[in-house]
Structures are given as structure tokens and as C-alpha cells.
Design goal:
By secondary structure, this protein is α/β, with parallel strands linked by helices. The chain has helices at 2-25, 30-110, 114-118, 124-130, 147-154, 162-171, 188-200, 215-229, 246-254, 308-317, 327-336, 355-361, 380-391, 397-400, and strands at 132-141, 173-181, 203-209, 230-239, 243-244, 262-268, 298-307, 341-344, 368-369. Strand 2, helix 7 (188-200) and strand 3 form a beta-alpha-beta unit.
Length: 403
Amino acid sequence: MFKRMSSSSSSSSLSHSMLKSRNSTGKVSPKWIVLSCIFTFALGMLVSNRVWLLPESNDQIMWPLQRDQDLQLLSHDCTTQKNNEILGQFQKTHEVIQSLDNSIGELRMELPSVERMSSGELSDKVTNTTKQKAFMVIGINTAFSSRKRRDSVRQTWMPQGEKLLKLEKEKGIVVRFMIGHSATSNSILDRAIDSEDAQHKDFLRLDHVEGYHELSAKTKTFLSTAYAKWDADFYVKIDDDVHVNLGMLAATLARHRLKPRVYIGCMKSGPVLSRKNVKYHEPEFWKFGEEGNKYFRHATGQIYAVSKNLAKYVSDNQAILHKYANEDVSLGAWFIGLEVEHINEHSMCCGTPPECEWKAQAGSVCVASFDWSCSGICKSVDRIKEVHAKCSEDASAIWGVLL
């Protein structure tokens, strides 16, 4: 600024001198004109350089700061963009996984699981090619200690050898003693059953540990195993101390063949026993209401039959079907909440002679006979031959039944 003031002062002095010279002579000397032009040009250049130099200098000072800010913003933008890209890819991956989960869930609903397939739940086309067709499959419940009972049944109402095979092939009636295995692998008890089966070929071996308090579990296993092996219209459970007329049993079941879900037997409703240390004690008595209440209607355990759809239901749901203390109560509980027709068939629970004898003489042969007081034929090994002699159907009856 000081220089500018000096320049202005010099310019004023020069102009004053020129004026003075002009006033004195009346003309401006060419020498002064040239000097004035040179001075003016130099002054203009000086001012111009200062005007342009300052912004350039400011730019040079500001540029590094601006550059750092720009780089910082650019870096922030790149980081944000990268994070957005990662989040976007994560979101897409999550959506793909969710979509796959939904697809797998739908497929599981539409296709049978491996567990169900192993239990025999396949499409009708597959089951028809892998299962043996039958009218009814009879499982005679027995135990390791019941060899004499089995022999007494073989000697009375259960066909043997070629007759057993012929009954299966020609009439579709399968009869087997059903038994599981002992808690000890390959025990003497298991080997005894193996030997007996090799002799008679009339056992259905179950994947079940034998025990009196495991009868409910055994029933589930029998129905599941039989359903997986045979495509039958009916599955029947009978105790090994009951007398049965196979022809009358087949004829009775055939009357209900076209019904979708039937549960056939002698329906009863016994008391719920809450007191401990008594036979048939029910530990879960509180579920059935106040003390002194009775069970819902269910078929007595000596003999009953279920149609194919009910056997399939047990097979499919055996893992979640609750077992009560008594096997017949358990079976009734599995069906009580379903659309099932309960058929109360009195001929399946006739008494031993004279009752079944009178009925046979009157032309109304019983399906099954036993004593209520013993939950079977009392002393069946000794008495079943007598019952068979007085209460059995004609030997040809089974072959004449239309199925």
C-alpha cells in the first residue's frame, strides 16, 4: 500500500511537471510523452501482477486443505458405498436362505419323511408293490414263559403247517404269535423263541423289550409292524389264553369291510383305580376326574380289531401316542378323539361253557370265549381243549366265508 501511495505521488509530480512544462511552452515535449507511457505501462504491470498473484497464492495455501477434505470425503463415500454393497449382499443372501427354508418346509409337508417311510407310510402305488395283501392279520400276544399256552392254541383253534400257509394264501388270513425280545441281547429266552419259530414258523418278532408293564408299547409296535408288512383290511389282537373261531371272526369283520375307520370289540367302561398296590392301578387317575370315575368306552384287551386306517394312524403317530397303565385303555384313548365308529360286538366276549356251548347249539357261534374273572380262560392250558370241543365252529367254516 505504501508503494502505491509513492507511485501515486510520483505520478502527480510528473503530471504537475508536464503541466508546468506545457503551460510554459504550450506544448508537451515528446521526451515526456515517452517517459510517461513507459511509466504508466510499468505501473500497470505492477498493479496487474499484484491482483493476479494474491488469488494464486491463496489457492496454493488453500489447495492442500481442500485436497485433504476432498480425499476424506471421497474415502468416506467409498467406505459407505462398500458397506452398503456388503449389507446389500448380506440382505440378498438372507432372502435366499429364507426362501430355501420356506421351500424345504413346503416339501416336508408334501413328501413323506424318512421316519414315516420306515414305518410304512408310502404312496398307495408303492405300498401295493411292497406289502403282502391280506384280509386280516391276527397277532396272538404271548410271552417267553407261555410255551404251554402257545402249544394249547396250536392244538385247538390255530391251524398249523400247510393249513396255516393255505389259510394265508387262499383266504388272506394271517395268524402269528407276536413277541419281542429280552433286555439282554441273544439271551437264552430269545434263543428258545428262535428254536420254536424254526419248528412252527408262526411268530412275528417285534422290536420291543418284553415286560408286563410294557403292553401298551407292545400294542403300538404290533400294529406298526403288521401295517408295514401287510396291506390288510383289519388288524386283530388276541391274548394266548382266549378261544377263537376264525370263521366267525372273519365273517363278523367282513360285515364292516367298507367302513373307513372301525374299532371292534366288547366295549366296556371300568372304574379308574386310584389306590396303589392293586391290580390295574392307574397312576394317572387324576386325569379322569374325581375319584370313583370310570374310563371312557374302550374294547376289552382280550380281543379287538381295528381297520387299516386306524392301524396306519397308530403307525404314523406312535412316537406321540400316550401310554396309560392298561393296554386296552391306551388303545381306546388313541381313538376317542377321532372320527371312529366304535362297534360293540358281544360275540367277541362269550363266557366259557356252558354259555358259549348254549349259543353254539342255538346256531349262534361265538367269535371268542374266555372268563372275565381271569381275563382269559381260567387255567387255559388245561381247559382250552374242553372249550374248543364244546364251543368251536365246524372245521370247514373258515373255508366257506366269503371275503
